[in-house]
Predict the structure of Solute-binding protein family 3/N-terminal domain-containing protein.
Amino acid sequence: MQASSTGMKLTLYPFAAFLTVMLISPVSNAENELNGVPLKICVEESEFPPFNYFSRIDGRKSHNSDGYDIQLLYRLFPPPDWQLHIIALPWPRCMLEVEQGKIDAAMSASANPERRRKFLLSRSYYYLTPGVVFLKRRFPEGLQFNSLTELAQMGTVCGIRGFNYRHFGWDNAIPLSLSKDLPLIPELLQRGRCDFFLARLEIFAGTLKLMNRDPQAIGLLSQVIPDTHPEPFYMLVSRQSPHKMALLTNFNEGITKLEKSGELQQILQQFTGK
């Protein structure tokens, strides 16, 4: 299946009432007391569009975060009850600081047994498609495989450092060549560093959209991983956060309310065009 048919069609543009978040440093305790409960939430620094990414001004990346996650957070944790800080970090550091309690929560995280032990998980609030990306010139008729074990026997399989591929069916006992950044996928495939790249297809489509790159023009195809289902994504909450239960309750109840009213899907459509 080609990326153009499996990837989510993205129209990454701000809302009419444009909401962005300037990444700012924590404030003093005195200010916290005056402005509600301080809440620090991290997102992926290398971008995870359309859920969180940096807005573009004249085609250039700004320092302002935008996306579905950002919109939801500002809907669910408004002032004066909450003082929200959204921080973009490399994903491994984001996970570590949430685990340590330096940050209260992380957005757009998949689940595995280790994460369920280390963190408190919210209810799921969207789903993504596990897929594999490859070069059309190498596999013009697509791929024939039944499992990622078979795929690994056909060539080098790559993924993103710190990402969780359990839902893809990846066996952690098999070494996985790792990249630090989604935008590097086309280059790594074209240079032969990777033969296949594991990717959530909607995120990969969003990344190419931000880069103004057409997957067909650069010779990329993608397929859904056989025998997989849409993968749920969650907010991960620190077990060390003093606000963990209030944070979880507010998020879960808010998502459920938006879902029942139809607003959750409307917000998602604003960023995906789907």
